[in-house]
């Protein structure tokens, strides 16, 4: 039976549970988790994501601090702000929305964030921890993908996972997380040969290439689980529509389960950001972090059949 993996509903339940944990911290006068979001420039999609992050942080009972800087901001000014936030005791998580304008060097900005407050999990220390299977903050999109996969499949061990895309924020950390789960992992990219044949060997296919509806039904192994990370805006009949990297209509005839776009991985990215903020706060205050928070949020329910 085909399953449309409802990331929107699962993310809402996870945010509710995070909210319960935040109110527990506040009731005991321990701490109110604080999230600082920095937006440079006026990219319309980034503005929406930043607004949603701030709104959902407040809805979960966190403090939200937003900083909007001009597109032309010099790198030094951005680094000064990060340095101030690193020292601010009210701020437990910091993120700089990507992409950044060309005059700002992304890696220098990421490395300026205190690794303990790096709730995006992009700092080399957190990247290294994820790669060696150690503790640390895990990038939100791959973390959300893994949660959706575990909700769908329960045991990932021994499955052949093909990750399409090798970006630092999705493809590479996704591969590390799947290896941790004992998957056999293949990372494919624009230079990979016989891409279609490779995809057809995947029990788990994670598509993060940013190419609208590239992956058709006949690229997919029957019964595979497909996670679509793509968020592509396409023009159709005079309107802008959001589509993934997977052609949902043809893929749903073959796959056992797929995340839709919108309503799949995207909402999980922001829920995981709040989870990382809670985790970073607990760590900074030496408060035990409730590791079972996802199972508490989702209970024993299995994915809804369509
Ligand atoms: N600092 C960061 N920058 C960026 C990240 C990130 O994790 N950290 N990821 C993406 C953008 N992103 C979060 O920032 C993000 C993208 C999409 C969604 C989402 O909920 N998408 C909805 C559709 C929303 C729409 O209409 O556009 C969905 O898929 O249902 C959330 C967060 C790049 N930058």
Description:
This protein is an alpha/beta fold and 306 residues long. Among the domains are: 31-114, Leucine Dehydrogenase, chain A, domain 1 (Rossmann fold); 140-265, 3-Layer(aba) Sandwich (Rossmann fold). The protein contains eleven helices and eleven strands. It has helices at 7-27, 44-59, 75-87, 106-112, 124-132, 140-153, 171-180, 195-199, 248-251, 265-284, 293-298; strands spanning 3-4, 34-40, 63-69, 93-96, 160-164, 184-188, 204-207, 225-228, 232-236, 239-243, 257-258. The strands form three sheets. The protein has a six-stranded parallel β-sheet with strand order 1-11-8-7-5-6. Strands 3-2-4 form a three-stranded parallel β-sheet, sandwiched between helices. A two-stranded antiparallel sheet has the order 9-10. Helix 6 crosses helix 7 (171-180). The radius of gyration is 19 Å and the shape is globular. It starts with a strand and ends in an 8-residue tail after the last helix. Residues 302-306 have low confidence and may be disordered. The structure holds ligand LMY7XDAE. Ligand LMY7XDAE binds at residues 45, 48-49, 95-98, 120, 140-141, 231, 242, 261-263, 266-267, 269-270. Keywords: Amino-acid biosynthesis, Histidine biosynthesis, Hydrolase, Methionine biosynthesis, Multifunctional enzyme, NADP, One-carbon metabolism, Oxidoreductase, Purine biosynthesis. Pfam families: THF_DHG_CYH (PF00763), THF_DHG_CYH_C (PF02882). GO terms for molecular function: methenyltetrahydrofolate cyclohydrolase activity; methylenetetrahydrofolate dehydrogenase (NADP+) activity.
């Amino acid at each position: 039976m085909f399953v449309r993996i409802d990331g929107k509903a699962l993310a809402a339940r996870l945010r509710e549970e995070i909210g319960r944990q935040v109110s527990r911290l506040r009731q005991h006068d321990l701490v109110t988790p604080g999230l600082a979001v920095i937006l440079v420039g006026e990219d319309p999609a980034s503005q929406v994501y930043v607004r949603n992050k701030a709104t959902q942080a407040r809805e979960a009972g966190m403090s939200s601090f937003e900083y909007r800087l001009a597109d032309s901001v010099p790198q030094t000014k951005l680094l000064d702000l990060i340095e101030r936030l690193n020292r601010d005791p009210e701020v437990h998580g910091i993120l700089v929305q990507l992409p950044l304008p060309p005059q700002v060097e992304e890696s220098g900005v990421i490395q300026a964030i205190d690794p303990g407050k790096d709730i995006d999990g992009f700092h080399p220390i957190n990247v290294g921890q994820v790669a060696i299977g150690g503790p640390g903050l895990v990038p939100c999109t791959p973390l959300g993908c893994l949660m959706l996969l575990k909700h769908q499949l329960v045991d990932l061990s021994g499955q052949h996972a093909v990750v399409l895309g090798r970006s630092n924020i999705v493809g590479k950390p996704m591969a590390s997380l799947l290896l941790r789960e004992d998957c056999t992992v293949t990372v494919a990219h624009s230079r990979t040969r016989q891409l279609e044949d490779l995809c057809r060997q995947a029990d788990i296919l994670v598509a993060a290439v940013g190419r609208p509806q590239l992956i058709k039904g006949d690229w997919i192994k029957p019964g595979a689980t497909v996670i679509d990370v793509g968020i592509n805006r396409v023009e159709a009949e005079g309107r802008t529509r959001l589509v993934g990297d997977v052609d949902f209509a043809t893929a749903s005839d073959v796959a056992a389960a797929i995340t839709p776009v919108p309503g799949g991985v995207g909402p999980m990215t922001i829920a995981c950001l709040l989870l990382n903020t809670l985790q970073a706060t607990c760590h900074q205050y030496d408060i035990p972090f409730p590791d079972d928070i996802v199972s508490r949020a989702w209970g024993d329910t299995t994915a809804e059949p369509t």
